Amino acid sequence: MYSRLTYIILLLTLLLANPAVANMEFDGNASYSFNDNVSNAVSDNDIFEDSLVTANFNAAKLWIPGAGKSLLLSGHLGAEKYNDSTGLDRYSYGASLAYIQRLGLGAYAARIKTGFRAEYRDFDTDMRDGMLYRASVGLEKRFTPELIAGATLTRERRTADADKTVPYFALAPSDVFNQNNSELEAYISYTLINNSVITARYLLRHGELNASTNPASAFFNYAKAIGQDYEICKACGKYVVYKVGANVQALQLDWNWALGRDTSVSANYERRIADANGGVTYTGNIYKIQLSRRF
Question: What distance in Å separates the CA atoms of residue 58 and residue 135, rounded to the nearest whole number?
Fold first, then answer.
């Protein structure tokens, strides 16, 4: 799987290295976040908080095959570093392809976007390493010069090598990080008179997730797989990681300010509520400040 993505990246590099740089797009962002439930735990004794910094860079080539049609091929590089966790730091690289079709003429015509993304993620702990695939279809429409809304359906597949996870006990399934999820996301954005943009998003996610806790956890009787996770943070002791079925709801509020033609800063708050199998529920809050720039 690793070599397949390498070929994808090499092909993408050749395409983006075309001397004709017209219709090329480059952008990047850096952010600082605080997550008050990194472990997705239920008990106060299992929850740990942490701050993290992320950086991402994207390079894309745009084609316009016809009126109202566009094709975007992108390459992605990313990094994520936690302050306290010793197992969640990662690097990532991948590629995506998106097709956009405008349904009519004018600024208020709706647009349909379909896309596919493949990404390899390399964590500090090898058991989490693997591919992430996302296929999506979305609809977006502008209603006024200030108001735009949209919705997206996504299917996600995460892969990892189960042999790299040490089972918590001899007969426990250790396939913790192979997961399937479906998402529905809806958003609405409004531009204020000072040209800042407020966006509200709602996310419903159905499928599987990880929770890392002490062994005597409410997840134990309902877990699909369980493995040792002793390196997730410096103060977590003998934690284990579960794979559980769950429905996750999240509400995000984002306020974005333009600092210039190509630079912006945003403040984001996210509230998560997850209902896992067996009636187990956990919550979490994420706060983020992000600087973005187009080159």
Answer: 18
Q: What is the reported pTM?
A: 0.89
Residue with tokens 């187009």: 294
How far does the chain reach from its first CA to its final CA, in angstroms?
Answer: 32
Q: Which two tokens stand for residue 47?
A: 């929850």
Residue 66 burial class via C-beta count within 10 angstroms: exposed 0-12, middle 13-18, buried 19 and up:
exposed
Q: 153 forms bridges with which residues in the sheet?
A: 137, 184
Q: Alpha carbon 283 to chain centroid distance?
A: 18
Domain boundaries, the chain: 2-294
Q: Which amino acid belongs to residue 119? A: E
pLDDT per position as a tens digit, 162-200? 999 988 888 888 899 999 999 999 999 999 988 899 999
Report residue 174 as tokens.
């250790």
DSSP assigned state of 167: B
Q: How far apart are CA 83 and CA 169, in angstroms?
A: 30
- Two tokens, residue 164: 């790299």
Evaluate whether 182 touches 242 at the Cβ level (below 8 Å): no
User: 21-60: per-residue pLDDT in tens?
Assistant: 457 889 999 999 999 999 999 988 888 899 999 999 999 9
Assign a CATH topology to domain 2-294.
Answer: Porin (2.40.160)
Q: Which of 81, 77, 84, 76 is nearest to 53 (CA)?
A: 81
